Amino acid sequence: MPGRRVRFHEYDVDFARRELRKSGVRVGLQHKPFRVLELLLRRPGELVTREELVALLWPDSHVSFERGLNTAVNSLRHVLGESSRDCRFIETRPGIGYRFCAPVEEVTEGDSSTVPPHATDKGADAYQDYLKGRYFLDRMCEEEVYKAIAFFRSAAAEETCRSLAQAGIADAYCQLALLGSAPVSQLVGPARMSAELALNNDPDLPEAVVAAGRVKMIFDWDWTGAREAGSRAVALDTSSVTAQAFQASLLCTLSNYEEAQQLCRRALALDPLSFPANVQFAACLYGARDFESAANQCWKILTLAPRFAPAQILLALAYERLGMYEEALVEFQNARSCVGFKAVATSGMGQVFGVTGLDMEAERMFVELSKQAESGYVSPYRYAVVCAGRRQEAQALSFLEESLRQRDPALLSLNADARLDALRGHEEFQTVLRRLGTNGHS
User: Fold this and answer.
1) Strand order in the sheet with 19-22
2) CB 170 within 8 A of CB 191
3) Fewest CB atoms within 10 A around its CB: which of 160, 238, 405, 431?
4) C-alpha dihedral over 183, 165, 261, 299, to 10 degrees?
C-alpha cells in the first residue's frame, strides 16, 4: 500500500496535506474528489467498487448518493485532464466501480523532487479525524458542531494536519455563533485564536484563509477584510466549495443577492450534495425575496435529509412570506425538536401567530423564549422578530438595539430578513444598519 505521498506521471499527491500537484504546482481539488483519488491510489490496479466509495464519502447515510459519486469522479477526471473515454488514469467498470490503471510510485523521504514529507501513520489517522470533523460540521447543528470540534482537536495534535484542523475549529466556533448557541463573548476568543494559528502556520491554505475571513465577518464586522479573504481563498483553490459558499454568505449579508446566487451555483456544480452550499443558496433566494424558489430549494435539501433543521427553518420563513401560515408553523414545529434550533423556531412561530392575529399564542411564544433564556443563551434578535409580528415596533427596535450592543451575529441576517421589512423606515432601524455597516459594501 502506498505511503503518505505518491507520484503518477507529472502528478504528486500528498495524502496528509490533501494536496495534488502537477509538475510542482498545486492543483485545486475539492475534498470529495480528492478522497476518491486517495482510495484509488492506495489500491492501484485494484477494482474499487462504487459501494466502497459511497461508504467513504457519505458515512452513516442511508440515502442514495449515486449522482454525487458521479459528480465527484467527473470532477476528478476534469482536474486530471481526462474523460471517461480517455482513461489515462481511471478505468471505469460500468455500474461496478473504478480502477487506477496508471503506474504509481511511492515518494521516499530522500526524494528531493517534491516537498519533504512529515510522514507518519499518525498523519493519516489525523486526516481521517479532520474529515470526520468536516462531516459533522456540515450538518450545521449545535450537537454535531461539538462533535466536529472534538475530531478537529484530535487531528490538531498531529503536525501534518494542524493547520487544517485549527481552521476547522475556527469554523466550528463561527458556526456556533451563527446558531446563537452562546453569547459572542464566549465564542470570539477560541474562533480568533484558532484562525490565527491556522493562518500563521500555513498562509496559503485556503481553509485557513476562509476561517480568518469568517472571523472578520461574524465577529469583527470587517466587510472589506472578509471580502478580501474570500477572494483570496477562491484564487488559491478555484474548486473549493467552502470558499465559494463563504463568499456567497458574505455577499448575501451585504444584499448582493445576484452575485451570491452565482457563487452558490458554482459551489453546487462542484458538489451538488454540499449541505452548506445548498442552504446558502436557499438563504440567498429568500433574501432576494424570491420566496417560491427558496421553498423549492429547501425541498431539494429535505429530499436528501428530511430532518435537516436549517432547511426546515428557511422553508418556514418562505412559507410565511407566501401566506402559507399553517405550513410555516408545521415546519417551525418540526425544527423545534432539533438541538440548538428551539429559540429560532419558537421565535418564528411567535411571529407567525402575531401576523395572523393570534396575539395570545404570540405572547405564549414570547414567554417561552424567556423561559429558554433561563437555561441557555437566547439572542435579543429572537424577541425582536416576535414583536415585529405583533406590530410592537418600538419593542422590536429596542431588542434590535440590544442585539447591536451585544454584537449579536444574528444581525447578519438583518438585510435579508423579510419579516422586519415594516421596520426599515424607522430611524432606529437605519441606525442599527449603519452601525452594523453592511450598507454600501455590496
Assistant:
1) 25-27, 19-22, 11-14, 5-8, 105-106
2) yes
3) 405
4) -80
Residue 36 has pLDDT above 80, yes or no: yes
38 pLDDT above the threshold of 80: yes
Cell matching residue 32: 470529495
CA distance 48 to 60: 19
**Mean pLDDT for the chain?**
88
Neighbour tally for 325: CB within 10 Å? 16
Place of cell 478522497: 35
Radius of gyration of the chain (CA): 23
96-105, 176-185, 203-212, 343-352: least confidently modelled range: 96-105
Give, in order, the Cα–Cα distances in Å from 350 to each of 81, 181, 324, 338, 354. 54, 20, 15, 18, 6
**311 in Cβ contact with 331 (< 8 Å):** no
Distance CA 270, CA 266 (A): 7
Which of the pair, 173 or 95, is modelled with greater confidence?
173
Cell numbers describing residue 40: 484509488
CB 181 within 8 A of CB 340: yes
Cβ contact 390:378 at 8 Å: no
Report DSSP state, residue 198. Answer: H
Give me the residue label for grid cell 477494482: 47
Sign for the pseudo-dihedral over CA of 307, 311, 313, 316:
negative
Looking at residue 340, its pLDDT comes to: 82
pLDDT band at 212 (very low <50, low <70, confident <90, very high): very high
